[in-house]
Amino acid sequence: MNYLRTTRYSLTLLLTLTYSTLGIGGENAPSTGEPTAEQIRFFETSIRPLLSDHCYECHNDETSEGDLRLDSLSGMLTGGKAGPAVVAGKPQSSLIVTAISYRDSELRMPPEGKLSDQQVADLTRWVEMGAPHPDRGKVKVALPRGTVDLAAGRKHWAFQPLNDSTMPRSDESANTLANPIDAFIGDQLDRNELIPLGRADKRTLIRRATFDLIGLPPTPEEIEAFVADESETAFDVVVDRLLNSPHYGERWGRHWLDVARYADSNGLDENAAHGNAWRYRDYVVQSFNEDKPYDQFVVEQLAGDLLDSGDNSELRHQRLIATGYLLLGPKVLAEADERKMEMDIVDEQIDTIGRGLMGMTLGCARCHTHKFDPIEHADYYALAGIFKSTKTMESFKTVARWNEVLIADSDEMARKNEHERIVTEAKQKIDTRIAAAKRELTPTKGETVPEDIEKRFPEATRSELKELRDQLEQLEASAPEMPTAMAVVDGVVADVAIHIRGSHLTLGETVPRRFPRVFAKDAQPLLPSDSSGRLEFARWLIDEDHPLTARVMVNRIWRWHFGKGLVPTVDNFGLRGEPPTHPELLDWLAVQFIQNDWSIKSMHRLIMLSETYRRSSSFDANNAKVDSDNRYYWRCDVRRLEAEAIRDSLLAVSGTLDRTMGGRLLATPNRELVFNHTSTDTSNYDTRRRSIYVPVIRNHLYDMFQLFDYADASVLSGNRNTSTISPQALFLMNSEFMTSVSNSMAERLSGADVDRDQRIARLFNEAFGRSPTETEVQQANDFLAQFQTEGNEVTPKHAWQALCQAIVSSSEFVYVK
């Protein structure tokens, strides 16, 4: 029986390390009782010939495809790359039974055709009997390849307790070391004989800080105020002003939405509109603006429905909205196999939580024990039980429906109840009139009431009923629309069996719900039998002793400020992730984060007020020879703006940015198809609102976002690539959007009551945050003059539009130093 004959299954096995700790040498070992003579006869007459005819050719001592031998009891019990072929006494857990039953589309053996029903029944019965075999008692089964050495696994740096490192000594001045970050960074610079650059000039610094915190360029007035402020706390004032801006939440909320794989449509097969996803987006923006403690932010998103909100309905609704985090992922809504769809959704949730909150690729343990990290196959299904016990879907029937909850306030509920009362009265009025009309009819002796009795009513009565029913139809159509939110609640609480190869068609032992043993140790409490365990899981994640949660988040904050994390692989802190460049600093920041009540804004202040953040982005050849990638932060890296910041900046300098916050821009009704690559496309990106409010349609992103390295909304992403490709330049040169914003800029400049040189200066100050040099003023004048030479039918406005477009298409506009 060739387990690797088909291409798809070959790929599955090559990607699979092995089945984990299920049973080998334990429940998979043959029973101690000796097989009876009748059982041995059954094996020799019905099973061995079957295996010989269909399996031995590819699974023997010389040709053990997939590392699987089926010509010996030891080979069957030990198994191959996909795990044990036989689990004695448990046909539902035995891959050999799954394969011959043809119930798994990716595992069908023998590949040339299914065995007869009698052969399938015989082999199944043999496994059920306990796999009696002449070699019983002589077999020594090896330990499973997926066994995890937890003690060794816990030695990995990211799984160690947080270390509140002592600040290193440095020869730098006391003033420079006022911020401990600089001491940690300075220590590594000293070790590598690197000389840090001095501070950036004020104009550069305020532009950097403003883009970092609110994603918009500073106004000329804000720049001049900072330049004029010669106090030692001038930059502190700038940072505090930006942190208090409502636009801060829009900027940093967008960073989090990358991690939450936010989208306004489902994607995949049925690209249905997430008509209420915007409520989660607005919750995130508000949370960042309020500086909601990160530990609370995490708990609300994982288990907001399970928190006690008392009589505060607004708080209860916000916490329900927060659980949209678990619902936002793409789903195959037309999946015919409902059990598979349910486990696929659970898998997507585990993967998102693992990489997003813990920096761990937990999803890799769905099919087998993790290939690299100390995460057991059983660990995965222990977590899966928590999320399978959570109601994510209202229905799994095609087309499946995600869960939504009512979040109406008291006034909305009062309107709903009043409308229902009026509808009920209207129905009662119709029923009363029909009953009266029936009584008015003269019954024929022995006649039963006919189904179409209303046809015997007088014309006037029928007309009256029609009018009443038309009124009822209008009433029902005018029902007030009640607000709902994408949210989860607890469902049927149950533990989950291990899925061998990740398939629900081959089940192993049931695993009690719990947390991964490498972190939670063995003496962890049992989760409640009457709830999913999400709340306990969320609180475990934000426990001060948890080694990952704070580390992962401070690393994200650092990355969003510097363009790279202290741990470069921001979504992977496992054994295959890159180690931190400054491990002591990472832990010190994580401890500070917790001690400052998980305040993200406090972390901003700590980082941005350091000398490390304020360094110049100039070049130093000697430093570059030692550290060309600037791993040790001797300078500030030059970074291109993200897609959203480019678009928002263009709108801002053109004076056309609509700064209205929140609300829904997606025009497609909830759950209706928004885009399907063929006939349906109801997307609309024509808005001047900030980019965070532009609908995110999976498989059909706004063109500009795609060009400038927007995140893939189908998966979480804590990192964005920065590419330089020709279509980006073509967009800046030729797109309708660029023409529109540069026209608006030209109109603003043309309307200013100043001379041409002053207009040029204003253009440079708004676009670059600085005044033009004399040479640049002359070049701009020459540029304008060339557009209006004799015989060239170009108006002054066209010339100014071309100049404005040239300025905002330049590298200086789209890059921050």
Automatic annotation (TrEMBL):
Entry-linked InterPro entries: Cyt_c-like_dom_sf (IPR036909), Cyt_c_Planctomycete-type (IPR011429), DUF1549 (IPR011444), DUF1553 (IPR022655)
SUPFAM superfamilies: Cytochrome c (SSF46626)
Domain DUF1549: 180-391
Domain DUF1553 span(s) in chain numbering: 533-784
GO MF annotations, alphabetized: electron transfer activity; heme binding
Domain Cytochrome C Planctomycete-type: 55-113
Name this polypeptide is given: Planctomycete cytochrome C
Lineage: Bacteria, Pseudomonadati, Planctomycetota, Planctomycetia, Pirellulales
